[in-house]
Amino acid sequence: MKVIKAKDYNDMSKKAAQIIAAQITLKPDSVLGFATGSSPVGTYQELARKNQAGEIDFSNITTVNLDEYRGLPQEHEQSYINFMNTNLFDHVNIDKANTYLPNGMAEDPEAECARYEALIQELGGIDLQLLGIGHNGHIGFNEPSDRFEKATYCVSLTERTIEANKRFFDSADDVPRQAYTMGIGTIMAAKKIVVVVSGEDKADAVKKCIEGPITPSVQGSILHLHPDVTFICDEAAYSKLK
Ligand code: GLP
């Protein structure tokens, strides 16, 4: 596990974008796994800037996202598909036909999970997966549990996650109770993983993921077992590490 200390959110975002840009340059038809939340927004801005400056080309890139709320229509402001369009895809030369997320409105959740998992396999797996982490150490929407899930599944969100994400909705009642997420097995099969974390409120989660035991009660702790993980933490997120 590599840990890179960044000065602040901006520096963290630039460093993450540099790693992703290098991936795109070395393999222009990469499959990139993307994440939502506040953590990667700056990374996406920097990637869009690099694309507009002609430094990187998204025309042959395919993307798969970690997760999507169950029950939010695509056009809902807080759907993750809308997040990705607004924060990245609308600003780069990617072919949107090559950008994939779970379908939050699917009628049959089991079939949707199987479809999404099969799609990732058909694409040949993920070359680089970008992650944020939740306050409870979740990655994607893999909430604290007594086990690690192998493949894409439908999960019930914890109160802590609903509380953390209510800032994007009118009230906590409006936050969907369920989501589709890649399983830990799906994420761990990515060839390379980059985690962006910022802010003091994430310092405990970072410490547990990086220094704690591997346990499904802190799902991000599994990253210890991956051969190519880079955490990029700003000073506040890094502050509790030894
Ligand atoms: C969200 C997402 C995760 C994200 C995490 C942290 O609920 N499902 O993929 O990494 O929680 O979000 P943020 O970056 O806004 O703190």
Briefly summarize what is shown.
This protein has about 240 residues and is an alpha/beta fold.
Write up what this structure looks like.
The chain is an alpha/beta fold and 242 residues long. The protein is built from eight helices and ten strands. It has helices at residues 9-26, 41-52, 80-87, 109-122, 159-165, 184-188, 203-211, 235-238, and strands at 2-6, 31-34, 62-65, 67-69, 99-100, 128-131, 153-156, 178-181, 192-197, 229-234. The strands form two sheets. It has a seven-stranded parallel β-sheet. It has a three-stranded antiparallel β-sheet with strand order 4-8-7, covered by helices on one side. Helix 1 crosses helix 2 (41-52). The longest helix has 18 residues, at 9-26. The mean pLDDT is 97. The chain binds 2-amino-2-deoxy-6-O-phosphono-alpha-D-glucopyranose. Residues 35-39, 66-67, 132-134, 140-141, 161, 165 line the site of 2-amino-2-deoxy-6-O-phosphono-alpha-D-glucopyranose.
